[in-house]
Amino acid sequence: MSTSLATRTRREEDVERAYNIQVKAGFKGAARSTAIGVGLSIVAHYTWPAFRRQRLAFKGFLVSGFCLVGLVFGAERALLAHETQRRIEENDMRRVARLELSKRGIIPTETEIAKWRASNEQ
Is-above-0.85 flag for pTM? Predict the structure, then answer.
């Protein structure tokens, strides 16, 4: 397998993994914030007469707003955490590659690091 093909495959797998993480976290965030929105709507309905007079469509709009906010923020938070973790892993790998290549007397260029990574993945 060539280096560019291995890099492309690794990136595609990482994109797919990030997408799956984002979808799962989005569903969890949407469910959590929808529950909060429904709870607050029920509490407001029984404690606040002005809210009780509002139509069901408006109350549904507020709950769906809670749902969308939870979906977006949950997915974004999970994606940022995943990207941070991947960046840390990549920096650690590059640090080890630079150290080992320097010990061999090879200047750790991007090409040499890619070759080192390909040889260590096999």
Answer: no
